[in-house]
Specification:
The chain has about 270 residues and is an alpha/beta fold. It contains 9 helices and 6 strands. α5 links the parallel β4 and β5. It starts with 5 loop residues before the first helix and ends with a helix.
Length: about 270
Amino acid sequence: MNRLSIERRTQIIGALVEGNSIRSVERMTNTHRDTVMRLGFEVGKGCHELMHRKMRNLNCERIECDEIWSYVRKKQNQLKPGESPRAGDFWTFVAIDPETKLVPCYLTGKRTLENATMFMRDLERRVDNRPQISTDGLPAYIRAVEDAWGSRADYGQVVKLYDAEPTGPGRYAPPKVSKVEKEAIWGNPDMATLSTSIVERQNHNIRMSMRCFTRVTNGFSKKLDSLKGAVAIHFAHYNLVRIHGTLRVTPAMAAGVEDRLWTLQELVEETSA
């Protein structure tokens, strides 16, 4: 991998962020899949450190949070007793500013109170003002937000109720929302703007941009480090490189984190040895 040129590395990372699988990138770039995975891990680690440095002193009036499912090696119900905790179902917690579309932080791990709290503490360290926070109805969020923010945020939950999943033709179509319930947990959240729609749209971007999140596919991650690396690359590329269709700038530029557009090659140069 050390012998790969910057152009070749950029080509590989560019293929990965467009949702291609490891094996398809291997065929497209004539690069062995082990080299592709090592590069993804290396650049992913660098992207995580880059986002950790840059996502600071943010001013986010509203923040939407959600979590998206994936798995490593095999699904949770297929694990045998005593198998590694680094396999099975994993969830990526995501926060997004619906105004600038910036993703200030994320966390990939098990769907536990401990991880929800770590995620909220990380978010609190990055935001300077008092935000309005919206989440879904995951019970762990209530204690996590209270632990991280105390009275320094206005917090509410949005719970969507869905029709029963169809069992005949069209069963893979998303279920229809039958009812939306909003609840102010504490503070004074604006019920009109309390929403998780933007972060749920970001979940769609995640599924389109990372093969390991695509539903009904064999493109799942074989190692937890590979999953975390893919997530880090996605969000660094999303924040710094990818121009948002509505904003006409990158989310980092819209939020004042950056004053210019990064190229994918710059991102790869910055985050790979």
